[in-house]
Amino acid sequence: MKFHYGGHYKSEEDLKSKRENPEGAVSFKEPAQNVFALVANVGCLILGICLLVIIYFMIDYDRQLFFKNIGSGALLSMLTLIPHEFLHAACFKEDVYMYMNPAKFLIFVHGTESMSKGRFIFMSLLPNIVFGLIPFVLFLIDRDMILAGMLGAFCLSMGFGDYINVFNAITQMPKGAKTYLNGFHSYWYID
Q1: How confident is the model at residue 83 (pLDDT cuts 50, 70, 90)?
Q2: Which of 108, 122, 148, 179 is the most buried (most CB within 10 A)?
Q3: Could you report the per-residue pLDDT of 91-110, keeping only the tens digit for each?
Q4: Closest of 73, 87, 86 to residue 138, by C-alpha
Q5: How far apart are CA 167 and CA 153, in angstroms?
Q6: Residue 109: is it exposed, middle or buried by C-beta count within 10 angstroms (0-12/13-18/19+)?
């Protein structure tokens, strides 16, 4: 992997990583970027509330611990934003660029190399597993690990955009297909 900082992101024209579409490439059926953002944010909110409700009812022995840890869990999850993107980037073999727009709370990595459905799904889910699922499962095993549960709940919910991408890959890519990004659009093709 060759990691590059792409700079401040304002629009799709700022992306330094673009490629030509191979013959026969099929665009994923995806909503427009603003609709995708809305769906991801609403999904994030709903999933986050559901996971926090689970934590709340699982620590019925001391509910004050819930309120004492919720702010710390939210802050810790914000500190995982850049490491989250580094985990995505680590799954690329070629050039990958990181872009930011702090005013819009936007940070993402972008690479255009082709990858199998399995590798794309792994790349999409890896940060959510590391920062979300593992801490949340640790809390489910040991209810005294409330801060881990909070971190997991926030990180799992913040990954909702990744889950949309995984859903699209699972439902739209045929067996043996490869996927790649071109701008903000995902494509698949049979090699």
Answers
A1: very high
A2: 179
A3: 999 999 999 988 877 899 99
A4: 73
A5: 20
A6: buried
